[in-house]
Each structure stands twice: as structure tokens, then as C-alpha cells.
From TrEMBL:
InterPro entries named among the record's database cross-references: NAD(P)-bd_dom_sf, NmrA-like, NmrA-like_oxidored
Record bears the keyword NADP: yes
Pfam family, any one: NmrA
GO CC annotations, alphabetized: nucleus
Any coiled-coil regions, as ranges: none
Domain (NmrA-like) ranges: 3-261
Protein source organism: Hypocrea virens (strain Gv29-8 / FGSC 10586)
Signal peptide: none
SUPFAM superfamilies assigned to the protein according to its UniProt record, in alphabetical order: NAD(P)-binding Rossmann-fold domains
Protein name: NmrA-like domain-containing protein
Length: 340
């Protein structure tokens, strides 16, 4: 009998990637969890034969009902929806509570064997308090909650998933190269050194690829092979998906070489944090803080450091030779850049 997998955020980027990866896999029956099944995206999923169930991340009982009978849950929260309405501080509170609601609901499902929580590194801890990235921090605090408050009911069934920088981020204003006609070239601005590194996800489909690969494995065996006697005693099982660490300069150079026939590498202007904020308002503040975190801490440390007892596995290592992640240059080539 096919296992039921509930996919929270089914109409979003990560959830959509998982649906694409698993849709034709007979081992799984997909249950798309969305706030509004009557939305165009919800109707599109229904038309594909996917079960679509309504649930509100702010309402734990609705989540528990939506998770009834499932074997696997993929859970993700969207910081930027409340951020756009109420700003970063309130958005962190909302996202944290949503993450708690998801975890509590999952912990009460007796049929559940695997809870995949899409989270992000703890920027405050990793920078020794120097930098707090709002859209990282609430998710990371949920990790701590699962490890402490749900240690007996959910932690053993949980895998924490770190998803790195999307290529599609270049379509959002703070990161978008713009063509400056007087100069005859593309220009982009950054509040950090051009040698600051970014951990690149590669193709958005890599999320689904990694999750499908995880589902095919004996999860405990995968992490036991990476651990020692002290590991996993109250710690978590982490997977990170990245196809490489690029300097800001190399990332944009790769984009240009893949997508532009004339290989027009953008001129990257390092500006002050204040000027970056002035250019992009609250989005400049939020993205600027993230970039400053990577500059201060280093991308490798940011994405390769876990807490006491935690075990971290690289997604490509998990997949082995059976399937490969789509690398960043190919991901750039596959993406539609018509609006840039």
C-alpha cells in the first residue's frame, strides 16, 4: 500500500519541487496541504489527481486533522508572507508559532514515521550573537523546541532539512542584475565584499530529488554511519542541499556566462549597508542582514556547523551514485530569465 505523504506549502517552491519529484512514484500517495484549496494553484493540483486538504498553520487542530493517517510529513513555513504585512519582528513570532503548531500536530500522529522540517541555520549562535537573520532565526528556534520539548514524541522521527540559496532569488529586486544602457552592461549591488561566499542550491528541483532519495533510505542507518557514540543523544539529524560555494562575484559571473550570449558579466558594486537599505527598503534590510551573516561567519561554517549531538549529512552524499543534483550552471540554463 502506498504511503501517504503530507506536503505543507504544496503550492510553494519547496513543496512544489517535492510534488514534481514524487507525483509519478507509486510508492507514495500525495496529500497537498494548503490554506486555500480553491486557489488556482490548489485547483491545478486537484486536476492532477492529487488530494488537496485545507489547513491553517496558525491552527494546530486543523493541522492535526490534515495529517491524519499519514506516514510522512514535509513541513515548511513562509516567513515572507507575514514579513510583507507586519515586518520582521512580528513575522518571526508568527513563523515560530506556526513551526510549533506543525511540530505539535505531527507529534500526535501515531502513523507518522518521518517528519521532514525545512529549517535554516541559527545565525545568532553561529555568529556569537553578532548577526541575527530574522528569516533564519524563527525556524532555528523551532529546531530547539523539537529537541527539547518534543524529544520523546517527535525528535527521533525528525529530519531537519537545510535548503540553500535559490537561483530564482536573482529575480527578486535586491539580487536582480539590471541593465544600465549608458554603460552597456549589467550592474548589481551588494552590501558585502564580492568575495563573500554563497551556498548555492542549484536547481529548485534538487529539493524534491533530495527528499525522494531520503525516503528510499533507512534514515537511522544513514545518520548512524556518520555519527559517533555521543551523536544523536538529544541532537538532530540534518541534511543540507548545496551544489557548491560561490563568491558573489563568481555566482554572477556564472549566471552571465550561462544565460547571456555576449557573456556580459555584471559589474558588482559593493555599497554600504545603509545605502543597500535605502535602495531596497525593508527587503534590503532583510537580505542585507543575511549577506552580512555570510560575510561575518562564512558560508561554509554557516551551512556545515550543527549543535551538540547533531549529525549533518550532505544531500549528494545521501543520494550517492543513484542520482545527481543539478548543478548551478545547469540550473541557470534551465531557468526562465526573460524578465531580466
Amino acid at each position: 500500500m502506498a504511503e501517504i505523504i503530507a506536503i505543507v506549502g504544496a503550492t510553494g517552491t519547496q513543496g512544489g519541487s517535492i510534488i514534481s519529484a514524487l507525483q509519478k512514484n507509486p510508492a507514495y500517495k500525495l496529500r497537498a496541504i494548503t490554506r486555500n484549496p480553491d486557489s488556482e494553484k490548489g485547483k491545478a493540483l486537484l486536476a492532477q489527481g492529487i488530494e488537496v486538504v485545507a489547513a491553517d498553520l496558525n491552527d494546530e487542530p486543523s493541522l492535526e486533522k490534515a495529517f491524519s493517517g499519514v506516514s510522512i510529513i514535509f513541513a515548511v513555513t513562509d516567513f515572507f508572507e507575514p514579513f510583507a504585512r507586519v515586518g520582521p519582528k512580528r513575522a518571526m513570532d508568527i513563523e515560530y508559532q506556526q513551526g510549533i503548531n506543525l511540530a505539535l500536530a505531527a507529534s500526535k500522529i501515531p502513523t507518522l514515521r518521518l517528519y521532514i522540517w525545512s529549517t535554516l541555520p541559527n545565525s545568532t549562535k553561529l555568529s556569537d550573537g553578532a548577526v541575527t537573520v530574522p528569516h533564519f532565526q524563527a525556524k532555528a528556534r523551532v529546531d530547539d523546541y523539537i529537541k527539547s520539548e518534543l524529544k520523546e514524541t517527535l525528535l527521533d522521527r525528525t529530519v531537519f532539512l537545510w535548503v540553500t540559496f535559490y537561483v530564482s532569488n536573482l529575480t527578486y529586486a535586491p539580487f536582480t542584475p539590471f541593465y544600465a544602457k549608458p554603460t552597456g552592461r549589467f550592474i548589481t549591488v551588494t552590501p558585502v565584499s564580492t568575495q563573500t561566499k554563497i551556498a548555492s542550491l542549484g536547481s529548485l528541483s534538487n529539493v524534491g530529488t533530495a527528499v525522494e532519495g531520503l525516503l528510499e533510505k533507512d534514515v537511522h542507518a544513514v545518520f548512524a554511519n556518520k555519527s559517533n557514540k555521543e551523536a544523536l543523544s538529544g541532537g538532530g539529524k540534518y541534511i543540507h542541499i548545496t551544489t557548491g560555494f560561490y563568491t558573489v562575484e563568481d555566482y554572477y559571473s556564472t549566471w552571465a556566462k550561462v544565460t547571456r550570449k555576449d557573456n556580459a558579466v555584471p559589474k558588482i558594486l559593493s555599497v554600504s549597508f545603509e545605502d543597500y537599505e535605502a535602495l531596497f527598503a525593508e527587503w534590503g534590510t532583510e537580505m542585507g542582514i543575511m549577506m552580512k551573516f555570510w560575510e561575518f561567519t562564512g558560508a561554509e561554517k554557516s551551512w556545515q556547523t550543527t549543535g551538540p549531538g547533531d549529525v549533518l549529512v550532505d544531500a549528494q552524499e545521501l543520494l550517492g551514485a543513484s542520482r545527481a543534483l543539478i548543478q548551478t550552471p545547469e540550473a541557470f540554463a534551465q531557468f526562465d530569465w526573460k524578465d531580466i
